[in-house]
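User: For this week's homework, look closely at the record that follows, marking any run of repeated tokens, and judge whether sequence predicts the tokens.
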Amino acid sequence: GAFSRYAPFEGQEASMVGSAKALRDVDWIVPTYREYAVFLARGVPVRELLLRLVVRRGDPVKGHELTLYGSRRYRVLMPAGAVGIMTSVAVGLAWGIKLRGAGEVVLTYLGDGATSKGDFHEGLNMAGVLGVPAVFFCQNNRYAISLPVERQTASPTIAEKGAAYGIDWYRVDGNDVVAVKHVTSVLVERSRSEHTPFLVEALTYRLGPHTTVDNPRVYRSEDEVKRWRELDPLRRTRAYLMERGLWSEDEERAYIAQVEERLNAEIEQVLGEPEIEPEVILEDVYSRPTREVLRSMEELRRQLARLRVSERHQPFA
């Protein structure tokens, strides 16, 4: 109940971690609202993400764009919530990198639902025309919220849509972390050296709800979820490591206990932080506040002061 909204990524861990680990520190990430595993793989502190989710003092984005995350330090571009629109933005970022000769690559995450939007096609078209160092990583988790992928497109695959824009495309088992890292690593380095965009379709499945305000039982069966749970990337990775003597059940139990203890402590600390004052919403409208912004901030403070006085004097029912 502490988080107003959250987009779970259970079932998509291999797609996220494998692709994120293919990048260099200088490369840029353009996420959606679901890539928390990408942020953790990138080195973003858990506390920073928790502050973002509960909007407490210390939230790096000061309450803007609830549930989304961006950070110049970790080279994560702040996304917008609307599906698909960051594709064109990513092309602009990658074009700037090419013009500067910076030797960086932009990895853009999107879902299967985004490929039904015009922004996706406009972005890929310009990426092909301009020849930018960008990899578009589509996590086909089978559903655009409640709409199955079969009802979104008549194309046999999402990946082959890249051909219309002169972009090489690849499909990968999105639940195989080793395969994802290998494919993405190869394409990222080719994109860096050749200034060539690529489209990757990672075949995976969202085991949980779209967000915490979604009820997936309305649009998919328990049998379907059960079949995909057998392909859970965590189970597969565990089996892969155990077969090679690199992991054990005792190590896993100890690790889970350690993570739960640390996470619970972080949550308790974050929930103890003061709430952000509403007037911070105006602090970053411009790099330096204009007179109009300063007047608006002062008026907001007066309104909030009156509201607080009114709340204190509210009679009991």
